[in-house]
Amino acid sequence: MEFQRFDNYCIVRLDKGEEVLQKLKEVCEKEDIKLGSITGLGATNKVVLGLFYTEEKIYNKTTLTGPMEITSLVGNISTLNGKCYLHCHINVCDKNMNVLGGHLNECYISATGEFIISVIDGKIERELNKEVGLNLYKFLK
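The structure corresponding to this sequence follows.
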């Protein structure tokens, strides 16, 4: 992984074998980013997607393997208990150009990944909402 910061943006390149969420979180921690957004694309050979079942309040996870393009990754950066919290969704296409997507749990780079982190000056904490079953934004006043 390599990255460079330009004012309120970090440009990140991930390399073969690196896990996307782990490396993006590492950048956020090194640069003390508490709030922002993430966009990206690249190539992967293993991704774990999630779909949240609202009635059961659980994520169903699906693992996809094989050559895939990351056609879109979008996400946000906040904090949970004061620590970096990433919430990302991803779309990938397979060799037949079928696109699947969902909540991103894991993604391993097979060639390269290119990401832009947009930094927002501020902090939004998250808190577990027991009724919904998710860590929701908690706006600090």
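The two ends are 36 Å apart (CA to CA).
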